[in-house]
């Protein structure tokens, strides 16, 4: 490639041709200094100054002294006795004590210690060591300063919504997270990446482990005895078992023809001898019990049909979709079921009939019951979360909650009791805020509020100690929150005060319920009396009633006309006159 360019010009336009040659040095011009101008200035010493536009920093290294600490205990029962003396025998010890007191060395030692004894006795007499100073001052309660802090973030690279969160059972528990978009696929599958992660709280940069379900995973449940076993509920209605020690894929999966018809929306471990049984719920309206050792067939199936006619068999056609489940090991045969129609069903597996199994029905919310949890203070009380409210219910009262929550501006997506505090619970909502509530401290507003994310928060799961809270949002972020001590450790009287609060609210609801029943009975009795009076009254002749009313009206009109001086004309005379005209 030729990049040259020719340039053509006349020689005369170049100017005079320079001719270089060596010549001796000669002075062209010399300008002498001006003495007058020199007197206007003075000489100054040279000054060096550094200028920097950034903040100067320094680095120092210091080797501190290492202090070695150890714990050592001493159990002092009674010492100073010879080996041949049994200090448990009072007679032998008193005999030996009298023999030592007769020795001359004993008297000398006592006399030598006399000055020290006298000094400490005078010091004790001069200073009252056991005096209670400021005893009359009023007692002030300690100020509880609530603090919330985000410790770490666990980020998903694909920004998938959080479907479920679980904590493993080990000394350093790990977080098991299922990612899934639960929207109905209209134009094709919306979950391309099906992997689930296991995170270590101490190393939040990358997942500690991962496993791959065969279809999108909606729910997970960690084994209560084996931290490497995870149960998953899938979008196609099946359940599967993962053993993270051997394989990243599912080790066992339930058959499709025996699975749920809808995605698995709830999954809970139950109490058994070997802790290998769990049960699942789905929006198709059924609950199924499974055994990890054999997933080929569910051990039991229960249809959540509260509207079934007595005597007819319950079917999925009239069932209520299961949205959340709660199981307490204190009640092996009972559990709570939250439906997608706003009902909470108290289920007893040992009931003889279907109605006895579904023993109680609570109309909790106007939308799906997204969470239901029993109180650790008393097992009769439980917490429900749905629509824009959080309520606290009692099993003895079906009509209304004993503690009604305040409606929020944004929908509440999940709620859970504080693991250690008896009067506290936590909620997350669509506005991205975490709220900590305490019924004893503040009844109508949260104790602490923390803006966690700009995206909607979907799930919340605390660990067993209650010191760390895992919160998931709609963009695949897991936020690990730590709470202050006053939000973790309960007060000395919290359990007693909370039990009294529950009893007081339950008694109030009983009184209101009895009053409502009295009003309804009275209204029914009044309606029956009115119906009886109507039946006892004789039949009224409608024609005679209209005739009497018309005559009364004519009489009143004629009287008014006479008072005005107008001669009244009867209707017959008026008609004859009109005919003449």
TrEMBL record:
Tell me the InterPro entries matching this sequence: Dynein_IC, WD40/YVTN_repeat-like_dom_sf, WD40_repeat_dom_sf, WD40_rpt
Family statement = Belongs to the dynein intermediate chain family.
What keywords is this UniProt entry annotated with?
Cell projection, Cilium, Cytoplasm, Cytoskeleton, Dynein, Microtubule, Motor protein, Repeat, WD repeat
Q: Where in the cell is it found?
A: Cytoplasm, Cytoskeleton, Cilium axoneme
GO MF terms, alphabetically ordered: dynein heavy chain binding; dynein light chain binding
Kindly provide the name given to this protein in its UniProt entry: Dynein intermediate chain 3, ciliary-like
One GO term of the biological process aspect: outer dynein arm assembly
Pfam families per record: WD40 (PF00400)
Identify the gene encoding this protein. LOC114240574
């Amino acid at each position: 490639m030729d990049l040259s360019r020719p340039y053509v010009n006349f020689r005369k336009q170049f100017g005079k041709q320079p001719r270089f040659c060596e010549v001796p040095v000669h002075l062209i011009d010399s300008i002498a200094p001006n003495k007058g101008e020199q007197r206007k200035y003075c000489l100054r010493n040279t000054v060096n100054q550094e200028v920097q536009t950034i903040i100067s920093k320094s680095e120092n290294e210091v080797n501190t002294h290492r202090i070695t600490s150890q714990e050592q205990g001493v159990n002092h029962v009674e010492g100073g006795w010879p080996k041949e003396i049994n200090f448990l025998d009072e007679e032998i010890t008193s005999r030996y004590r009298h023999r030592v007191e007769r020795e001359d060395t004993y008297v000398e030692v006592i006399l030598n210690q006399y000055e020290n004894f006298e000094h400490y006795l005078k010091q004790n007499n001069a200073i009252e060591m056991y005096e209670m100073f400021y005893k009359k001052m009023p007692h002030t309660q300690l100020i509880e300063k609530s603090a919330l802090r985000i410790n770490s973030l666990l980020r998903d690279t694909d920004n998938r919504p959080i479907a479920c969160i679980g904590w493993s059972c080990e000394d350093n528990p790990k977080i098991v997270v299922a990612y899934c978009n639960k929207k109905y696929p209209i134009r094709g599958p919306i979950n391309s990446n099906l992997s689930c992660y296991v995170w270590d709280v101490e190393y939040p940069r990358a997942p500690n482990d991962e496993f791959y379900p065969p279809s999108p995973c909606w729910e997970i449940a960690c084994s209560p005895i084996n931290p490497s076993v995870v149960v998953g509920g899938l979008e196609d209605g099946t359940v599967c078992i993962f053993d993270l020690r051997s394989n990243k894929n599912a080790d066992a999966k339930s058959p499709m023809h025996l699975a749920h018809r809808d995605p698995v929306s709830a999954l809970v471990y139950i109490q058994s001898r070997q802790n290998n049984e769990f049960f699942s719920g789905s929006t198709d309206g059924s609950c199924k019990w499974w055994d990890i050792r054999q997933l080929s067939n569910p051990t039991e199936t229960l249809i959540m049909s509260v509207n079934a006619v007595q005597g007819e068999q319950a079917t999925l056609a009239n069932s209520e979709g299961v949205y959340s489940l709660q199981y307490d090991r204190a009640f092996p045969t009972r559990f709570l079921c939250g439906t997608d129609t706003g009902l909470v069903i108290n289920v007893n597996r040992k009931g003889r009939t279907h109605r006895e199994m579904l023993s109680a029905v609570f109309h909790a919310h106007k939308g799906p019951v997204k969470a239901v949890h029993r109180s650790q203070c008393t097992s009769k009380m439980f917490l429900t979360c749905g629509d824009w409210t959080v309520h606290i219910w009692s099993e003895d009262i079906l009509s209304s909650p004993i503690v009604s929550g305040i409606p929020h501006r944004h929908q509440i997506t999940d709620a859970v009791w504080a693991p250690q505090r008896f009067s506290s619970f936590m909620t997350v909502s669509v506005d991205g805020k975490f709220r900590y509530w305490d019924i004893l401290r503040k009844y109508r507003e949260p104790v602490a509020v923390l803006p966690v994310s700009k995206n909607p928060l979907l799930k919340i799961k605390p660990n067993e100690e209650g010191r760390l809270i895992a919160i998931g949002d709609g963009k695949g972020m897991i936020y690990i929150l730590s709470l202050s001590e006053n939000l973790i450790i309960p007060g000395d009287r919290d359990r007693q005060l909370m039990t009294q609060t529950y009893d007081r609210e339950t008694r109030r609801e009983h009184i209101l319920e009895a009053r409502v029943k009295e009003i309804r009975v009275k209204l029914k009795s009044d309606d029956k009396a009115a119906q009886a009076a109507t039946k006892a009254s004789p039949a009224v002749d409608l024609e005679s009633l209209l005739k009497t009313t018309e005559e009364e009206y004519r009489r009143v009109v004629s009287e008014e006309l006479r008072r005005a001086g107008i001669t009244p004309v009867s209707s017959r005379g008026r008609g004859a006159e009109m005919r003449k005209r």
